[in-house]
Design a protein that fits this description.
This protein is an alpha/beta fold. The chain has helices at residues 3-9, 21-24, 27-36, 48-51, 61-72, 90-93, 98-115, 140-145, 148-160, 181-195, 217-225, 243-254, 290-298, and strands at residues 14-19, 39-42, 76-84, 122-127, 165-170, 202-205, 208-209, 230-238, 259-264. The protein binds (3S,4R)-3-hydroxy-2-oxopiperidin-4-yl beta-D-xylopyranoside (XIL). This is Beta-xylanase.
Length: 299
């Protein structure tokens, strides 16, 4: 049985990976995704600098490829990501007034999300908006609009695809323990926004882990999941991919009723954005590593 099949048998929706046209175009890589994973996240093709590098000129070539591949191969899609301070074109960062930035966010979110309405399970509407002390990261979005950019983005996203579950996604939220300032800051902000009617359905925890951090995931994730209707581990990779640590991380999601799935950030170590850390489940020959075997045996 694949880890995706095992996750589904435990009531989860998927066990997934990131991908894009390049990796899907490699037959060996695509075969692994078809066999072992149930969900794909666009690694880069959904980001602002790809989708709207020039104001009002949209490029969906890469994202269309990924979504079409997912539909053909019966895989779920996590949309990633509409509002993020990084991989953001300079024309957006240069905006200084509220009315312009509001209109720009609304058009970007609406255009991207409505294009795939009904085909995407979840969207990372806002990515990495908190700083390590749990406050708002300094970005053009927070500097010009304060926290209102969150409401603006999520309301546009809800209108654009009422069926999609709308996520707020971040890193360093499950690594350091449930009392870490960024974790508690995210929890209190999201709770406040949900209570105020901002249409946030879920929290995504990226989980780009260093060795030794897996033990902190269960309690941190439980605290995050408690304030939203859904949650997920969205970009998992673990330095050196210790099998017991992978099991501990995956089990954290399995054990939380509203954690819907786990996504690892890539298939093969050499294709990882942290390639030198060998953090994934398949080796350079597309063979399963011990961590994959441990997941299948233990979960
Ligand atoms: C990374 C990609 O994997 C790289 O290919 C790219 O050069 C930089 O971005 N948090 C996120 C992801 O939300 O989008 C990032 O992906 C990794 C960190």
């Amino acid at each position: 049985k694949s880890i995706d099949a095992i996750f589904k048998s435990l009531g989860k929706l998927y066990f997934g990976t990131c991908a894009d046209s390049g990796s899907l175009g490699k037959a060996d890589n695509a075969d692994v995704i078809k066999a072992d994973f149930g969900q794909v996240t666009p690694e880069n093709s959904g980001k602002w600098d790809t989708v709207e590098a020039t104001q009002g000129k949209f490029n969906f070539a890469g994202l269309d490829t990924l979504v079409n591949w997912a539909q053909t191969n019966n895989k779920l899609v996590r949309g990633h990501t509409t509002v993020w301070y990084s991989q953001l074109p300079s024309w957006v960062s240069a905006i200084k007034d509220k009315a312009t930035l509001t209109a720009v966010i609304e058009k970007h979110v609406t255009t991207e999300i409505s294009r795939y309405a009904g085909k995407v399970l979840q969207w990372d509407v806002v990515n990495e908006m908190f700083d390590e002390s749990g406050g708002l990261r300094v970005s053009v979005f927070s500097s010009v609009l304060g926290e209102d950019f969150v409401r603006i983005a999520f309301e546009a996203a809800r209108k654009a695809d009422p069926a999609a579950k709308l996520f707020i996604n971040d890193y360093n939220t499950v690594e350091k323990g449930s009392t870490y300032a960024k974790t508690t800051g995210m929890i209190s902000h999201v709770k406040k926004w949900v209570d105020a009617g901002v249409p946030i359905d879920g929290i995504g925890a990226q989980a780009h882990l260093m060795a030794g951090e897996a033990k902190n995931v269960a309690a941190s994730l439980a605290a995050l999941c408690a304030v939203v209707s859904q949650c997920a581990l969205t970009e998992v990779d673990i330095v050196n991919a210790a099998p017991a640590e992978y099991v501990e991380v995956a089990k954290a999601c399995v054990d939380i009723a509203n954690c819907v799935g786990v996504t690892v950030w890539g298939v093969r170590d050499p294709d990882s954005w942290r390639a030198s850390n060998n953090p994934l489940l398949f080796n350079s020959a597309y063979a399963t590593k011990p961590a994959y075997a441990a997941l299948v045996q233990t979960i």
